[in-house]
Structures are given as C-alpha cells and as structure tokens.
Amino acid sequence: MPGAADRIARLAAWDEPVTAVRLVNAGRAEALGKLGIVSVEQLLRHYPFRYLDLTSTSSIDKLRVGQDVTVVGKVHAVTVKRPRHNLSVTEVALVDGTGVLIGVWFNASWMAGQLHEGDHVAFAGRVEISYGMRQMKTPIYEKLSAEEGAEEVARVIPIHRATAALSANWVRRLVREALDAFGDVPDFLPAELRLRRGLPALADAIAQVHFPDSMPRAEEARRRFAYEELLTLQLGLAMRRHALTEGLPGFRHAAGGPRQAKLRAALPFELTGDQQRAAGEILRDMASPHPMNRMLLGDVGTGKTAVAAIAIAVAADGGGQAAMMAPTEVLAAQYARAVGPLLDTAGIPWALLTGGTPAAEARGIRDGIAAGSVSALLGTHALLQESVAFARLTLAIVDEQHRFGVSQRLGLRAKGETADLLVMTATPIPRSLALTLYGDLDTSVLRERPGGRDLASHVKTEAVHRTRRDEAYGRVRAEAAAGRQAYVVCPLVDESDETSAKAATAEAERLRKRVFPDLRVGLLTGQMKPTEKAAAMDAFRAGEFDVLVATTVVEVGVDVPNATVMIVEDAERFGLAQLHQLRGRVGRGEHPGAFLLFADPKTPDGRKRMAAIEQTTDGFELAEADLELRGEGQVLGERQHGLPELRLASVTRDAELLAQARDDARALVADDPALKRAEHGPLLREVRHRFAEAWEWVSAG
User: Fold this and answer.
1) Which residues lie below 8 Å from residue 323, measured CB to CB, with a gap of 6+?
2) Domain total of the chain
3) Does 8 lie in the same domain as 62?
4) Which residue among 410, 434, 450 closes a domain?
5) Which of residues 616, 642, 666 is at a domain's end?
6) What would the DSSP string read from start to end of 500-534?
7) pTM of this structure
8) pLDDT tens, 494-518?
9) Pairing mode, if any, of strands 485-489 and 563-568?
10) Which secondary structure element, helix H or strand E, spans residue 92, and what is its range?
11) Do both 459 and 586 map to the same domain?
C-alpha cells in the first residue's frame, strides 16, 4: 500500500484543470464551466442524475400508470402542435410491437429535429394516461444504433446534466476520458473503516457510478459516495465540537445557588418533564470543565425562555454575566417582559440593549456591563457592537439562532473567555437534519407545553377558501365584540407588479375603509423604524387596536394573550414551519384561538401542506412532513453557510449511513482530534477541501 504522502500526491492530480483531460479544448472547458466544472475532480464528481437501465425494460402493453420505467422501441411519428400562441407541444410516438407510448415535450419544438421516424430509441420516465393514451412527459431518451442486438442494448446508460453547448453524450464521453487518465486513484478513506462499512474502493466506485455494470453496482457506488459526503461533513463538525468543548477549559458553574432557587420559585407554572430534563442537561454542561455547546430545540409554546432564565440565574450565582441575543427588537422586548420580572425577583441586575435604545441610556448600560454591575444583558445585534465589553461573560444565549450567521454567534461568545454557548430555536427540525446541520452541538428537546395545555384543543386550524372571507371576517368581528383581538398576516410589505400576493400596507388600508370601518386597525411590518414597530406592538398589546395587519415580523416571540384569531393571506406561500410559528401567536391566553388560512393551492404538494397544518399541531411531525414535501435539497439550501454540499447523500434515505458516519467521525476525532497522524493525512486533506472557506470555522472553534 502506498504511503500517505504518495497517496496525497496522487490524489492531488484531481486538482488539475479540466483542460488536462483529453478532448477538453477551450470551448468545451467554457461549456463545462457553466456546469461548475473547472477541475478534473469536478468532472469526475459530476455524477449522473439518472440512468437508462436497458438491462430491465418493459414492453408498452405491460406499462402501469405511475410506474418509473425504461421502454425501447422505434419512433413511429414526430408531431408538433400549437394549441395556443405561447405553447408548443412536441409528441414522439414510440412503438415496440405491443403498443404505442407518446413522449411529450412542452415548448421544446427543437425536439422535432432530435428524433426522427425509424430511430431506435429508449425512453425512461413516469407513465401517465392522457386521452386514453400512455404517455411520458419529458422522458429521458437515448438514441440506439439500429444494428445493436438485444445483448448490446442490455446495458446501463448514465445521464449527466449538460448544457446547450455540450450535449449529454459529449459530457459522458469527456467523463470517460477523465476516468481513463485519472480514475486509478488511491483512496482517502482509511482501509479499516471502508472494509468495516462494506464500501468499494474509490477507483472502483468512481468507475461504477458513471458506467455501472448493473444498477446494483451503481447503488453500491452511490452508497460509497454518500458515506464519504456524510463522513467528511461529520468530521468537520466533530473537529469543531472538540475545539469548542474538549479542547478548551471552561468556566465551571455551580448549580443550586440562591438566585436560581428564587427564580425557579417565581415561575408562574410547574416545569414540564421536558423542561426539567433540558435544564438538567444544560446545568450539567455548565458545571463541566469544558465550555457548553448546546442547542435547545423547542416546539411552539414549550417554554424555552424559562429554561434560558434558569441558565442565566446559574451564571449569576457563579459571579458571571449572561448575554441573550434575539434577531428582532420585537422579540428582545418580549424577553424584557417575560424574563425581566423573574430576574428582578431573583435579585439579578439586568438591562435591555437594542438599536433603538436612546444613546444616553445605552452608554449607561455599557458602563454597567463593563463594570460588572449588570449581570444579564438582553438585546439584539446591538450586543455585538465593539463598545459592548463584558466584565466576565460566562454564558452566551442566541435565540432563533438560524437567523444569525456563524460569525455573529461566535462574535457574541467571543466577548467572554471560553463562555458557555446555548443556542435556541422554536423551529422543530427532523433528527436527521439536526445531525446534518448541527452535528457540532449537543441537543435538548422540548415537546410538552407548560400547564398541560394542548395546542390542538385550544387553537382550531382551518384552511378557508377565499370565497368564505365574510365568514372569517365575521369571526374577527365576534371576537372584537367580546373584547378580544385578531391578526391578519400578509406575505408582502408592499404591492408588487410581479405577484398578486397580498401586501400588508394595502391590506391594512382596505380593511380600515371597507371591511372593519368600525374597528381599530393597526399595521406592523419589518420595514418600519424600530420606534414605530415598538409603538405598534405596544399599542396592540395594550388593546388600542382590534386588528393588527402584519408581515411575518410577528412570527416569533410575540405574546399577546388577548389575541384569539389569526388570518393568514396567501397561506400556500408560507412553509409549514412558518405557519406553525404563526399559529403559536394566538390562543396564548384563557380563550381558545382560531387560525384561519386563506389559501387556494394549485399543486398537489400545496394541498398536502394545507392538509398537514390542519391535521397536526406537533411541530416535529410538521417538520418531517415539510422535509418530505419540499425535499431535503430545498431544506438543506437553508443550511449554515460553508457546510459541504450533499450531492448523493440523502439525509432521509441514508439515515443509517448518517448515524454510522457520525459515530465513525466522533471516534476518529476522539482518537486524533486534528487528524494530524500520517495515516489520516489523505482524509484530513479531503475534509479541508470540502469545507473550503469554512475551514477556519471548523478549526478555530
């Protein structure tokens, strides 16, 4: 077996520019560049997105609706229809002696020049029935030689993404050239690990993923690459976790102090079992000799703030300071109302600092923080200002952490020497995604709601067709007559020529003049000045408005117990997690709530999303449904900036591989924290390569 240095040198050949591949001239290099391919490795990792499996085909008479299948036959006819001036439909009739299958392409009249009568062709796609005929819409197709016999046709053909300037056939040819010249490459995975997980070697896998002998061999190769994607991701996260916890000395907080006892006694409810368990996990971390690095993941209304307040009290008991940062001034002000009285009762000096804090008051707060006379600082991004210097910050809390960048979260923590970090989110995510996105964090989960209140029985959710507006408005009137209040949430702030979606400013005006002229209608948007937002929210909370028209600025942290109705305009435009957050704003008091969704979804997925939000109030179930409906590609697109892309790994399909990769990564890092040993050199190179610009985030902690 070659040594690590030799293996690294041979792997480095993949860093050569793509023009090192035979037949890649300047023009083809430019076309490949449009696919994001500029190196040999990027060409070799330009995996097929689909295969034509000619080893397993079906005759046309055996096709079933909904079946994904490959069919081989001859082109009988090619026609182009123009049912409307802006629509063309190209139909290719394929026959095989048992029947006719129609391939359909929309606004792709150029297809008429690609396939001709008599061509021997393979179609792959999903079977549908239209006008009594079997169809495939936009099938993957491959021309076959008329001379090919059955044995020659029986192969697996890879389909690579291409461009107008470089066909799929040419991409396939260039990949073959790259494999011939650079495919015999050593493996960066440790041999023991690869054998234990039953994975093929890199050279074999890269050949089989592009030109498989069979579909099972293609799946073996895909599994190998899925594992290496997940392993390198988990290694980066495990190395970061080690740097943030095991690699540094932390402040050892002591639980059971007087301030914590007073704060617990002041809570207006009994802690749920989940809250007690989460608080215990957090306090154990805070008492450990290493810095805490934990995420508190809570469903709507499960009391994350109370758990955070307990952690703040523990920091104060130890003579330290705590900072709690929110993404909006509305949420920061909510902290002051919810947490402030508890801190007062516990004898913990605190302050609220936001961008809207008057200059003189802000100077006094900064002086108190620097002197140590203020033990807890609540606020927004203003906490990150260079002028905010803590005397002894030992606990940093970041709420709705996904709204902050990595550098912002680290910036708050860096204001204390190895401070404990607690990040919180009210957006439940599936466990598989939590492992993928936040593998560097330990996790505590809250599902139960304080007081035993069940959201499903206390808040009724209903998708309302727009034709039933008067009925929904009648509910708002009835609640206002009873002294209660309502929200109307719109997806936009102002009207746009590009969409017909409701805009908050115009809707507030319409409701004032035409619908509720006898009610008091207010407006709250994220584009308003901080003082204007605070005034609008305070007025609504004080009961000065019957109806508050808002954007999603009210999604998180707004607590008005008297608000019992929420209408969401164009609800199909919102994600399930966002709708669930909005639902949590009503029914927070003694009176039951109504969550009314004005929606007219045009797609099956849109209708499924509306059904899901109606049928369940469990945020974690909704997160799973959102993952299933939206697809992990879209969900992972919101991942932390800099994390490696998952191209073949699926966090749902490969859940077992993900768990294995996490275990393997943590074992490797426990044994060799920085992967400095010679035998880990090729693996370290691969991890650094995949994390690219985020490597400093991994290694610096």
Assistant:
1) 376, 377, 378, 379, 383, 390, 393, 395, 396, 397, 412, 415
2) 4
3) no
4) 450
5) 616
6) ---BHHHHHHHIIIII-TTS-EEEE-TTS-HHHHH
7) 0.72
8) 766 555 567 889 999 999 999 999 9
9) parallel
10) strand 87-95
11) yes
